[in-house]
Amino acid sequence: MNQLFDISDKVIAITGAAGVLAGGTAKYLQKQGAYVVYLDLFQDKVDATVEEAKKISDKCCGFACNVLDQAALDAVRDRIIETCGKVDVLINGAGGNMPGATVGPDQDVFDVNIEDYSKVLDLNLKGSVMPTMTFAKVFKQQGHGVVVNFSSMSSPQALTRVLGYSNAKAAIDNFTRWMATEMALKYGDKIRVNAIAPGFFISNQNRALLTNEDGSYTERGQQVIDNTPFRRFGEQQEVYGTIHYLISDAASFVTGIVVPVDGGFSTFSGV
Ligand code: NAD
Description:
Layout: E1 11-15, H1 21-31, E2 35-40, H2 43-54, E3 60-64, H3 70-84, E4 89-92, H4 114-142, E5 145-150, H5 164-187, E6 191-198, H6 207-210, H7 219-226, H8 240-247, E7 258-261
Parallel strand pairs: 1-2, 1-4, 2-3, 4-5, 5-6, 6-7
Helix pairs in contact: 3-4, 4-5
The chain binds nicotinamide-adenine-dinucleotide (NAD).
Residues 15-16, 18-22, 40-41, 66-68, 93-96, 123, 127, 150, 152, 198, 200-201, 203-206 line the site of nicotinamide-adenine-dinucleotide.
C-alpha cells in the first residue's frame, strides 16, 4: 500500500462500533491492518460485534462503554494502554436521535420535549467531548494522536423538525475546530482533530423515517433524495475512505476540518 495511507501499525478506538457507519468503518480499518478496539453501549452488542471482527483478524478487542460515563471511559483507555501500549486514533461514532427532541409531522414547534432534547444534546455533543478529553490526555503524553468526530448535514443548514440533534452536531463542528486549535497550539502538529459530515445514509435510527417496508421512500425520504444531486442515499462503505484519509499520514497537515460526504446535499440550492 502507498506509505502515506498505511495504518497497519495504528491502534484505533471507535465508539458506536456496533452501529452501521462506525461499525462498518471499524471493520474496514481492521481489514487495512489496524488494531481496532470496538466500543459500544451494551455488552451483548459488543460481544457479537467482536465475534464478527475476529473473523477478519486477531487484531481487535471490545468493551462495553457508555460514552457519557467518565469512569468507564478512563477504565477503557487504561486497559487499551495496558494491552497495546498506545492508542493512535479515537473515532467518535456514538450518536443518535430521539423522537421527543424533534417536532413530529403533526406537532407544533413548541411540542419539543426538553428532557429528550437534553438527552440528545448529551449523547451527540458530550458523548464526543468526553471521550476526546479522555483519550487526548494520552495523545498529549505520547506526543501524537488523531480524533475523528461524526458531524451531520443537519449542522450547517436548518433541517426541518430536527432540533436537538442539529444543535448538537453544529456544536460538534465548533468543538472540532476548537479542540484542533487548542491541541495544536499547546502540544504541536502531531495531534489532529477533524470530522466527517455524512449526508443521508440508511441506519438503524432513520430507516423507518426514510423508507417504507417495501423499500420505497417515505415523503421525508423523497425530500432528501430531491435535495441530493446524486439522487440516492449513501452506502455505508462510502464513509470509509474519508476516515482512512483523515487518520493516515496523508492528512498530516490537515486539522480542524469537517468533510462532507453527502452526494452533493450541502452544495445544492434545491433548484
Ligand atoms: P447507529 O445507530 O447505527 O449507531 C450508533 C451506535 O451508537 C449504536 O450502536 C449505539 O448502541 C451506540 N450508542 C448509543 N448511545 C451510546 C452511548 N451512550 N455510549 C456508547 N455507545 C452508544 O448510527 P449510525 O448511522 O452508524 O451513526 C454513526 C454516527 O454517524 C452518529 O454520530 C450519527 O449521528 C452520525 N450520522 C449518521 C448519519 C446517517 O445517515 N446514518 C448521517 C449523519 C451523521
